[in-house]
Design goal:
about 80% helix; single chain; mainly alpha; about 250 residues
Length: about 250
């Protein structure tokens, strides 16, 4: 059961980084990909149908950590508390910018919301990069923070590959100036939590008894539903974006 829970955590955390990492990366590149209001609306429309569903993977991963690996949850919250705070603030700022930008039809309002999307996306990428770096470094916050910037670049690289696939021809060519392919960057993002997880002493952080069993079984039940819903959304919006979204 321990091994199953570890594999499930790798699947959910890797799924989050692959899926949500793309919209975070696009948000980081928003000022460069979208040079005016019309272009920025198209850039945001490229990931608008996906970003809420992508965040479900993080919620599932957090639930699995809390129920199956309480020791890991304690280590992350205690040792990396500043990074967790930055991550949560970045998440709120980015999502707030996305939800509010379409509520007022004013240039200054949309510009402020776009700035929130960019700032929140960079905060998320730097925080996640630092968290992964800290785990790889054995829990060291200082060393992990140093690794945060190069690891955050992976998000931008991944976002460029996603934008190249989803944006209209002209904007896709701009994204194509970054040598990235979505499939390749997805493999790298999926491998990041596996590399970080190889440094964790799982036997010391795993839950005992019924708590682990219930968490693992519940996660196994949820996984097919999540995969099916994601597949439906991605199939529905598989083409290039043609017009602005509701955001």
């Amino acid at each position: 059961m321990d091994s199953l829970a570890v594999v499930l955590l790798a699947v959910f955390s890797g799924g989050y980084l692959v899926l949500a990492g793309a919209d975070v990366g696009v948000g980081m590149l928003l000022p460069w990909l979208g040079r005016d209001e019309r272009e920025r609306r198209l850039v945001i429309a490229s990931f608008a149908p996906f970003f809420l569903g992508n965040e479900v993977w993080l919620v599932a991963a957090a639930g699995l950590v809390g129920g199956g690996f309480p020791g890991l949850e304690h280590e992350l919250l205690e040792g990396l508390y500043p990074l967790v705070v930055v991550l949560l603030i970045g998440w709120v700022v980015r999502d707030t910018g996305l939800w509010l930008r379409g509520r007022v039809d004013a240039v200054a309002w949309r510009g402020g919301c776009d700035a929130a999307v960019v700032a929140g996306s960079w905060a998320l990428a730097l925080a996640w990069g630092s968290v992964l770096g800290s785990v790889v470094a054995g829990g060291g916050l200082n060393v992990g923070s140093v690794l945060g910037l190069p690891l955050a670049v992976l998000f931008a690289w991944h976002g460029a590959g996603f934008a190249r696939w989803r944006l209209p021809a002209g904007l896709a060519e701009r994204a194509g100036r970054i040598p990235s392919r979505y499939g390749l960057s997805a493999l790298v993002m999926a491998g990041a939590p596996v590399v970080a997880g190889s440094q964790v002493r799982w036997s010391e952080v795993v839950a005992d008894g019924a708590g682990l069993t219930m968490t693992a079984v519940g996660t196994v039940v949820v996984l097919p539903l999540l995969l099916a819903s994601q597949a439906l959304v991605w199939w529905t919006f598989r083409g290039r974006v043609e017009s602005p979204s509701y955001l």
